[in-house]
Amino acid sequence: TLRVAILISGGGSNMMALADSMTGDHPARPCLVLSNDPDAGGLTRAQAMGIPVAAVDHRPFGRDRAAFEALMQTHLTDAGADIIALAGFMRVLTPNFVARHAGRMLNIHPSLLPKYKGLNTHARAIEAGDHEAGCSVHEVTPELDDGPILGQARVPVLPGDSAETLAARVLPMEHTLYPLVLRRFAQGDRSPVLLP
Ligand code: GAR
């Protein structure tokens, strides 16, 4: 059975969707939920689901990302993580850390990549007048929000949408797409999935 560490910074709704999916004949199980924010709501939720949790507050490390990542790495090693799933993890990872986990780290991003890497994706899609938006799951490579796309889900942008209403339409698609992609990834299938 493959062991999946889920990295979060916030509420952890994607974490919950992933963890809920890893039952029965699924080839993987959650081994750790790790947050850079000790107050992340997702930590309490993971704990309530019986998943081991840890937090490594990035703030005391200042600009020393390598030292922050070294401490995160000890938790990942202790947990025996085979796969790392970034799920609303809002820290940029160094090329060293990414290289160490090459081919076994996934991320979900709330845009139809390669559009709108970085932050404020929904506001930017609306501002651009896009008629569709969505989310992407991709393999993590050193460039931010880059790397081979493993799956995408599309939703319409509707007249009058705000970043909030669009996010509320995209998020449930994230909860469908990410577990589907993770299951295929754990089975060794990296061909992209397109939803709906
Ligand atoms: C999700 O929409 C995820 O796609 C996004 O943050 C949210 C986390 O929500 N990720 C990023 O913006 C990554 N740069 P969650 O904590 O409820 O899963």
TrEMBL record:
Pathway linked to the protein: Purine metabolism; IMP biosynthesis via de novo pathway; N(2)-formyl-N(1)-(5-phospho-D-ribosyl)glycinamide from N(1)-(5-phospho-D-ribosyl)glycinamide (10-formyl THF route): step 1/1
Domain Formyl transferase N-terminal, residue spans: 3-182
Entry's Gene Ontology cellular component terms: cytosol
Entry superkingdom: Bacteria
Record Pfam families: Formyl_trans_N
EC top class, as a word: transferase
Coiled coil: none
Family in the record: Belongs to the GART family.
NCBIfam families: PurN
CDD domains tied to this protein: FMT_core_GART
Name of this protein: Phosphoribosylglycinamide formyltransferase
GO MF annotations, alphabetized: phosphoribosylglycinamide formyltransferase activity
HAMAP family with a match to the protein in the record: PurN
Positions of N(1)-(5-phospho-beta-D-ribosyl)glycinamide binding: G12, S13, N14
Residues that, per the record, bind (6R)-10-formyltetrahydrofolate: R65, N107
EC number per UniProt: 2.1.2.2
GO terms for biological process, alphabetical: 'de novo' IMP biosynthetic process
